[in-house]
Design goal:
The structure is a single chain. The chain is 31% helix and 24% strand. The protein has twelve helices and 21 strands. Strands 10-2-1-14-21-20 form a six-stranded mixed sheet, sandwiched between helices. A four-stranded antiparallel sheet has the order 17-18-15-19. Strand 12 and strand 13 (243-245) form a beta hairpin. The chain is globular and about 65 Å long.
């Protein structure tokens, strides 16, 4: 490590979850670290905005309490988490059916009686699949041969009927693709995390998570509104022409900046998602539950103010509905019509608060999907982010941790 404190050992470019985790681990090992962020706040895609008194995340996002990296780095109590119902509502031709976890809410057991959402054979297959994923060590899941999620479900004995009635509409909102083409190993790990954890929202929005990560760093470590134009032999050059010297540089930005700063890094395609935020005078549901649609006219919808009442001013309900791809003329009216049917209420009087499109919402993860990749790109050059792992917050944090380990190993040589 540097003998003098004014010499930077490591410059981390990007203050999203991966970059903040990397910086924290480097600092804990005694390295001199600086973090620069192009935006006006930490978080990358994990941002929350205030819009006319409503809390609006940049795309619909949830927080899973079971992720090991999350539990290692954050005090969950400080986030004031508010849970979703352990289950989802599925809107289909016969109306709404509930898919729930009876081990957490025994009173919902009748919802899983054969003939409602699934037959006896499917329920048995689902029980075996869930037990294996929940109890198996992650390393065992990671060693499995990789297939698509669709093949993994078939191999587990899940019928086409249950796939179309539940898994395809639900997982489309998880993986942001509706062909079930995502890695089966990733599916099993995600399913395991859902069974073992609780899906929540922080009281102050998803942006509270990176803010908590940043708060654990020494004051002055992160410099906002400092975009990097290019990397140099001695460090990095900022957009205003200042060079920041560093022995090592870790690029922990979104895919666009990774491609510009480290063009030799191969990047996956990214999924695009658009979220419509509507305001209604009252909740159309009355419970903090995710709702999906078997016709896949939307990925999912929920009443955010049923999950976190403070997300909406008193006397208002905030409904978030996500769809694949970009917004387009007339699309919101089609979504609104689908919501009227799914919620069983009129939506003509709902106000459109805002629309959020995230162009790099999630990396595509087709099999065989590496579950972790080296951060090393070139001597003194490293990269981390969700595209190096499983696309989740857990993956981003683990990627940042791996980058820190590899940087430290190289600096000590």
């Amino acid at each position: 490590m540097s003998a003098t404190r004014d010499v930077t050992d490591v410059l981390v470019v990007g203050a999203g979850a991966a970059g903040l985790a990397c910086a924290r681990d480097l600092l804990a090992a005694g390295a001199v670290v600086r973090v620069v962020e192009a935006g006006d706040e930490v978080g990358g895609r994990m941002r929350s905005d205030r819009v006319d008194g409503f809390v609006v995340d940049r795309g619909f996002q949830v927080f899973n309490t079971s992720y090991p990296q999350v539990r290692r780095r954050l005090t969950l109590r400080d986030l004031r988490l508010r849970p979703f119902t352990p289950g989802v509502l599925v809107h289909g031709p016969s109306g709404r059916l509930r898919f729930s976890d009876p081990t957490r809410r025994p009173r919902t057991l009748p919802d899983l009686l054969p003939g409602r959402l699934a037959g006896a054979r499917d329920l048995a297959a689902l029980g075996v699949l869930s037990a294996r994923d929940m109890l198996a060590p992650p390393r065992r899941i990671k060693r499995r041969a990789d297939t698509t999620t669709r093949t993994a479900l078939a191999d587990a004995g899940v019928s086409d009927v249950l796939v179309e009635r539940f898994f395809r509409p639900f997982l489309s909102g998880v993986f942001l693709e509706d062909d079930l083409a995502t890695s089966g190993r990733v599916f099993h790990l995600v399913w395991r995390s859902m069974l073992r954890g609780t899906l929540c929202l922080p009281a102050e929005g998803i942006g509270a998570v990176p803010r908590a990560l940043a708060a654990a760093l020494p004051r002055g470590t992160v410099r906002l509104e400092t975009p990097v134009e290019r990397l140099t032999d001695d460090g990095a050059l900022t957009a205003d022409g200042r060079e920041i010297p560093a022995r090592a540089v870790v690029v922990a930005t979104g895919p666009g900046s990774v491609a510009a700063l480290l063009p030799q890094v191969g990047l996956p395609a990214y999924r695009v998602v658009t979220t419509y935020h509507h305001v209604a005078p009252r909740s159309p549901l009355g419970e903090p539950t995710l709702l999906v649609d078997t016709r896949r006219r939307f990925l999912n919808t929920c009443v955010l103010s049923d999950v976190v009442p403070a997300h909406a001013p008193p006397g208002h309900a905030l409904i978030a509905t996500s769809v694949l791809g970009h917004d387009a003329e007339g699309r919101e009216s089609g979504v609104r019509a689908a919501l009227a049917e799914a919620y069983g209420t009129g939506t003509d009087g709902w106000d459109l608060l805002t629309v959020r499109t995230v162009g790099d919402a999630l990396p595509a993860m087709a099999p065989p999907q590496p579950l972790s990749r080296t951060a090393r790109v070139a001597p003194g050059r490293y990269v981390c982010g969700d595209h190096r792992a499983t696309g989740s917050v857990q993956g981003a944090l683990a990627s940042g941790a791996r980058a820190a380990r590899e940087v430290l190993t190289d600096l000590r040589r």
